[in-house]
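Data availability excerpt. The first of two example chains:
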Amino acid sequence: MRKSSWQSNKYIIVAAILGSILIFAAGFLVRYLDYSITVYSQIISALILYLTAVIVFWYAKESAESNKLHLEELEAKIMPYLRLQWSKAGGCVFEIVNDGNGIALDVSFSQMVFVDNVLKSKFQIKSRPLIAPNNASSIVSVEELKEDAQGIVKIDNFNIKGYLFDKLDLAYKIKVQYKDIKDNIYEAIFVADQKYNDKFRIKSQKRVKTN
């Protein structure tokens, strides 16, 4: 948010007021208390140095704040922001959507692990090289989500979508890691939740490494 004219120039205004007071005080000392012109000149020189220091400080502060605002605007333009949603399309299970302004690169997913009657099932979503802004990438069950029960069973035509839908009440988590175009690394955690239209809520999403 841009600062008001008063906020931007308050240091100059305060310095000008103080300077005027000091000039008046110096003139009073010379005129009414019989101080020499030399003392008056010294006061004026000190005042000029003071005002110069205030102006330099104000300029440096304003420049730093302006640079910070510029960097924040630039970061907002390149930052991806992901959302995971349950797919209504028949052949897809999930869709990973980039609602941010920047490209999401090297999008990788954590493994989902379930245990049914001591039998462990693992599901792994394949990584994406990139997801463009305001675009979605569909996660197709037959092509990507392979059910692997302790390395013994691997069935392509298994109804993975129905299986995972039934597991939504377990509030399972899917962790996603990705980068922006400056190689900053982000991490998002999605939790299955039937109360949301997407069937997933965003537990957290933040930058974990800055380059």
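And the second chain:
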Amino acid sequence: MKCDVCNKEITINWGTGSSTLCEQHSLSFEDLSDGGHKNTIQEEENFLALGRGSRSIIGILSIIFGLMLIPMFFDPPRPELGFVNALPSLFCFLIAGACLASSKIRGIFGDIIALSVIAMSAVFFIAWYIEPSADEDPFGFAGFFGALAVAYLFKRYRKYFSSKTS
């Protein structure tokens, strides 16, 4: 077996399942980012490691829930909200797209979902700030779901957030 970076013969694979590295290159991330190992699209987009079966089940259930929520747009509980009544159904279809789409566009759906959750957290917090209610907790919602969405975006775009050191 040979190191993917320096082509040196090795006996122990110090890398991950997708790369073969010698001890020297497994210790230095700079060698990997500047050298030979490039993440595949699947490694970049599927870092949650969901298999095809689990993505299919989640996608099919999201389509079913999205279809079940469509009548809410045509017979809304609060007609004054207008198009906002269609957002729950649209959100379910976004989740289905993130699960069932090809790997090239799956990440775009994930980005839209994460940005939607961050926007929902902000709107929920603003609505609570304008009219506080004891039974609503915008901090818990934003702290949990908003933080997960930010973590997803940060992990997906970590190469843009990290600074190169010389």
